[in-house]
Amino acid sequence: MKEHDAEQVIADRGLTAPRITPDHLDSVITGEQYHVFPGTTLTVCCLTLANGYSITGESAAVSPANFDAQTGREVARADAREKIWQLEGYLLKQKLHEAALNNDYGVTSA
């Protein structure tokens, strides 16, 4: 299921709990760079996030005859972006956990 299709299913079901959305994921990406190692089909994408952290993704064609630079970039970017889901999911869960702890002790966050 594609991520925008999943978002539609979530909306259709009326689910409103905090979650990471594709739009949010895209909003934390502030830069991207690509490198193809000379003599290979290995493409590396480096995505820079809003907080300055960098995440990489890779792609490689088995056969040099099948190598296409644009496809390599797209696959490497998708690989890097997929890793951001996990990072952002962890961050959201941590924020929810901290909010729950604060509420348990009657502390309000600023």
Strand order of the largest sheet: 1-2-3
Strand content: 15-25%
Structural class: alpha+beta
Q: Overall 3D geometry?
A: elongated
Mean pLDDT: 91
Q: Low-confidence parts lasting 5 or more residues at pLDDT below 50?
A: none
Total strands:
3
Q: What portion of residues is helical?
A: 40-55%
How large is the radius of gyration? Answer: 18 Å
Multimer state: single chain
Number of domains: 1
Give me the strand/helix succession.
Answer: HHEEEH
The largest sheet, given as strand count, sense and whether it forms a barrel, is: 3 strands, antiparallel
By DSSP (H or I, 4+ residues per run), the number of helices equals: 3
Distance between the termini: 38 Å
Question: Can you describe what's shown?
Answer:
The protein has 110 residues and is an alpha+beta fold. It has one domain (3-104). 47% of the residues lie in helices and 19% in strands. The protein has 3 helices and 3 strands. A 3-stranded antiparallel beta sheet has the order 1-2-3. 8% of the residues are buried. The mean pLDDT is 91.
